[in-house]
Amino acid sequence: MRIILFGAPGAGKGTQAKRLEEALGIPQLSTGDMLRAHVRNGTDLGREVDAIMKAGHLVSDDIVIRMISDRITAPDCAKGFLLDGFPRTVPQGEALDRMLAARGLAIDAVVGLDVPDEVVRDRIVQRRSCPKCGAVYHLSKLPPKVPDTCDRCGTKGLEQRTDDTLEKVNARLEKFHKDTAPLVQLYGPRGLVKSVDGMSPPDEVFESTLRVIGIGLSGVGKAPAKVAAGRKPASRASAARKPAARKPAARTPAARKPAARKAAPKKKAAAKAKPRPAKAKKKSARRR
Ligand SMILES: [Zn+2]
Q1: Is 261 a catalytic residue?
Q2: 81 with 73: CB under 8 angstroms?
Q3: Phi then psi dihedrals of residue 113, to 5 deg
Q4: How far is the CA of 258 from the CAs of 24, 220, 231, 232, 263, in angstroms?
Q5: How far is the CA of 159 from the centre of ligand 1 (A)?
Q6: Which of 7, 33, 219, 255 is deepest in the core (most CB within 10 A)?
Q7: Burial class (CB in 10 A: 0-12, 13-18, 19+), 49
Q8: Domain extents for the chain?
Q9: Active-site residue identified among 88, 123, 226, 266
Q10: How far is the CA of 20 from the centre of ligand 1 (A)?
Q11: What spacing in Å lies between the alpha carbon of 131 and ligand 1's midpoint?
């Protein structure tokens, strides 16, 4: 599964990315982190990038595509990947598509965590933290027991991070919408853009995400940790829930091995059973 994940600042993208990584057995590829790692490790590409940045230029799309192209040949990308922070423009998306197509691959889903701008603003602007112990508060939803005093360590004078002003939050939101628009433009017409309500508790957001990408919880096992530990418990759990889908031969221990192949038809069935891309598309498209 090749997924592009996006979400406003504070929408819980990091949490969901981690869970998807574990549940689907695919790595999160953050292009910014990847570039920095190349520079840090002094690879050929890293030296090239370092020189470009030191000269004050932007790293070209071509280089980023090359880096992704190289990265997805690694064994951990065999089942797919979760792309984060790229593409940010239509030409970047088109270049990505061409590179994938040359390998017989394609993006399967573009998932957006939907949190209204007002909520993002409220979450961030009302956030206060303790300068001593780092405890985080929200002035109206999670206020300290004694005003302006840390519950945990008693420090007086809770602080607002310099990035957490209304002006800066608005700038971050504006950038987010600007980055998101090309994704909707490019992948929307193909029915790939899926919107997930990011206001729900993390567990529900995760379930919704699996649902929109056409994988039921049964497809990955109930808890992501189980899948990470090995495919067997997941395949047994899903077989128990849907006995009809299991072939009699699957009962012999030897036949349990190809778990991935057995799960595949079920994924497709789930995708067919819940086609709701039209609504999701509309919702995202309205954003800006
Ligand atoms: Zn404190």
Answers
A1: no
A2: no
A3: -85, 115
A4: 16, 14, 9, 9, 9
A5: 11
A6: 7
A7: buried
A8: 2-26+79-116+181-285
A9: 88
A10: 33
A11: 7
161 is catalytic: yes
The pLDDT tens digits of the residues spanning 196-251 come to 999 888 899 999 999 999 886 666 644 444 344 434 443 444 444 444 443 444 34
The pTM for the full model equals 0.66
Q: Running DSSP on this structure, what letter comes out for residue 59?
A: P
279 has catalytic annotation: no
CA 215 – ligand 1 centroid, Å = 42
Tokens of 164: 């957490």
CA of 132 to the centre of ligand 1 (A): 5
Q: Is 19 a catalytic residue?
A: no
Residue tagged active-site, from 40, 47, 79, 161? 161
Which CATH topology does 2-26+79-116+181-285 take?
Rossmann fold (3.40.50)
In angstroms, the Cα distances linking 26 to 72, 83, 133, 150, 219 are 10, 10, 35, 40, 14
Mark whether 123 is an active-site residue: no
Q: Quote the CA–CA distance of 201 and 216 in Å, as a whole number.
A: 18
